[in-house]
């Protein structure tokens, strides 16, 4: 596994962790899913989660 994949996995694990806190606090699966989707989409938009290799 290369460094980019390791960073993506670490970031998604963080998204899952924070989304699970929100989901448990709200006692709601939709809140968990919405929070996870928002965090993951934000990570992709900001470039923290890279779906394709960058330019060299």
Provide an overview of this structure.
This protein has two helices and no strands. It has one domain. The model has no long low-confidence stretch (mean pLDDT 93). By secondary structure, the chain is an all-alpha fold. Helix content is 75%, strand content 0%. α1 (3-26) runs antiparallel to α2 (29-46). The radius of gyration is 13 Å and the shape is elongated. The chain has helices at residues 3-26, 29-46.
Task: Set down the secondary structure blueprint.
Blueprint: H1 3-26, H2 29-46
Helix pairs in contact: 1-2
Write a brief caption for the model:
The protein is 75% helix and 0% strand.
Roughly what fraction of the amino acids lie in strands?
Answer: under 5%
Q: Provide the number of structural domains.
A: 1
SSE arrangement, N to C: HH
Largest sheet: none
Residues in helix, %: over 70%
Rg (C-alpha, Å): 13 Å
* Mean pLDDT reading: 93
Q: What is the 3D form?
A: elongated
Class from helix and strand fractions: mainly alpha
From the structure provided, what is the oligomeric state, counting identical versus distinct chains?
A: single chain
Q: What is the terminal separation in angstroms?
A: 19 Å
